[in-house]
Design a protein that fits this description.
alpha/beta, Rossmann fold, eight-stranded mixed beta sheet, 10 helices
């Protein structure tokens, strides 16, 4: 009897999990693109989304791998529970083989602009299917963590208007590709072993140098004690946004480290406050309602 009850509870949990997320979308299917199965968009639609807000979530992982649990699905479920439809983007990354064997010095592999193309395609997909998903195409934002934060801001800095999100939320992001604050692992993964020392490429993908004058609103968070991405990365972006008079909010916490996503356990009580601050900010910029 106990085994049957346990099975029934597990079955209910599984059904709830399946209903919480929609069918995965292969963004490059039927386009002839190579490695099209690597780029997947997973919708987490909110039944309480009365504002039509949608957020594409870009997990971090140094552009080598993806933290799908803490910075992907976990974030999407949190957004979903707060009346926001989320779409987790599994974008192309360099992969563990490139991390260990540096094979992209001879072979192309996944590198820039593959990741950016994936994010741009995700934004276009959500807008093109806005009616189907009950989404307002003018309220499609993007949120990214660490290297995913760099990717989220890249969709603003390097995209045409139809590929550009309505707002962006880079959380403890990689920003610059130049010393002294560069996160070298992310730079190597993004540019490849062959291009990582190309100064033109470094400058071209340093976000602080490419904030557009018509940049949409930005929500920016990081922690001073971040042991992975030097905290001055976010300060560089904040300064660039301020210089261009871009509507944005920058919160710098003293503690929290790196990689906490929307977790209730990771980070610190101080850093976990970013979630409520973000929801409040969305109301302030008229994306969501009180």
């Amino acid at each position: 009897m106990l085994k049957k009850l346990s099975f029934f509870i597990l079955l209910l949990w599984a059904v709830g999990t399946i209903s919480a997320q929609e069918k995965e979308v292969y963004l490059w299917q039927d386009t002839g693109a190579k490695n099209w199965k690597q780029t997947i968009l997973t919708p987490y639609l909110s039944e309480n989304n009365n504002t039509g807000t949608a957020i594409i979530v870009c997990p971090g992982g140094s552009y080598f791998w993806l933290d799908m649990e803490t910075e992907g699905d976990g974030v999407a479920k949190w957004l979903q529970s707060n009346g926001i439809s989320a779409f987790v983007l599994k974008y192309r990354v360099a992969g563990f083989s490139a991390f260990f064997w540096n094979h992209r010095s001879k072979k192309h592999g996944n590198q820039y602009p593959d990741m950016l193309n994936d994010a741009q395609q995700a934004i276009k997909w959500v807008r093109n299917h806005a009616k189907e998903y009950h989404i307002d195409p003018n309220k499609v934002g993007i949120m990214g963590f660490s290297a995913g934060g760099h990717l989220s801001m890249s969709t603003i800095c390097y995209s045409s208007k139809d590929e550009r999100p309505s707002f962006a939320a880079p959380i403890y992001p990689v920003v610059t590709m130049n010393p002294p604050y560069v996160h070298k692992r992310s730079r190597r993964a993004l540019l490849s072993e062959r291009r990582q020392n190309d100064q033109v490429m470094r400058d071209s993908l340093s976000l602080e140098l490419h904030v557009p004058a018509d940049c949409p609103p930005v929500f920016l968070v990081n922690c001073v004690d971040d042991p992975i991405v030097e905290y001055h990365n976010s300060m560089l972006l904040d300064s660039a946004l301020t210089a261009k008079n871009i509507k944005h909010k920058y919160i710098q916490y003293q503690t929290g480290g790196h990689g906490f996503g929307a977790s209730d356990e990771k980070g610190t009580e101080e850093s976990r406050a970013w979630r409520n601050e973000f929801l409040k900010w969305l109301r302030e910029i008229k994306i969501t309602k009180e």
